[in-house]
Amino acid sequence: MNQSTFFVELAETAAALRGATRRSLVIMDELGRGTSTFDGTAIASATVQHLVERSKCLSLFATHYHSLLEEWKADPSVVLGHMQCLVEDNLASGDEGDGNVTFLYTLGEGVCPKSFGINVARLVGLPVEVL
């Protein structure tokens, strides 16, 4: 087949959008992540718009595009949420993201207050030079 990951992602998205009805559950995770920020945001935004306004199906749509969250936060048919975590800041170091992160596996209301990428990178053991 020799198709790129991005091509496969968009082909699967197209199939989900074509088949979605009011009785569907559509779950999408980080759509558009493998492209430029502008292209990814445009694709993700148009997909959410299609799901909300056209398909009107139940959807879980995970994204890192914060502008997308701003765009939809006032829509009464959209509920924003984030996966909660606990971060113990290491006050001695003064470095952002220098604390231990504990995932709570609990859905919280609203937008995630900040990114915890450095904490997660430390958790998986990336070398200090990379952090």
Structural write-up:
It is a single chain. The chain has helices at residues 5-19, 37-55, 66-72, 117-123; strands at 25-29, 58-62, 81-88, 100-109. It is α+β, with helices and mostly antiparallel strands. Strands 1-2 form a two-stranded parallel sheet. A two-stranded antiparallel ribbon has the order 3-4. Helix 2 (37-55) links the parallel strand 1 and strand 2 (58-62). The longest helix has 19 residues, at 37-55. The radius of gyration is 17 Å and the shape is globular. The mean pLDDT is 88.
How confident overall, as mean pLDDT?
88
- Residues in β-strands, percent: 15-25%
Helical segment count? 4
How is the main sheet built?
2 strands, parallel
Task: Estimate percent helicity.
Answer: 25-40%
What is the molecular shape?
globular
Protein structure class = alpha+beta
Distance between termini? 37 Å
Strand order within the widest sheet?
1-2
Low-confidence runs (pLDDT<50, min 5 residues)? none
What's the number of extended β-strand segments? 4
Task: Spell the H/E element sequence.
Answer: HEHEHEEH
Features:
131 residues, 4 strands, alpha+beta, two-stranded antiparallel sheet
Quick rundown:
Helix content is 37%, strand content 21%.
Question: What's the arrangement of secondary structure elements?
Answer:
Layout: H1 5-19, E1 25-29, H2 37-55, E2 58-62, H3 66-72, E3 81-88, E4 100-109, H4 117-123
Parallel strand pairs: 1-2
Antiparallel strand pairs: 3-4
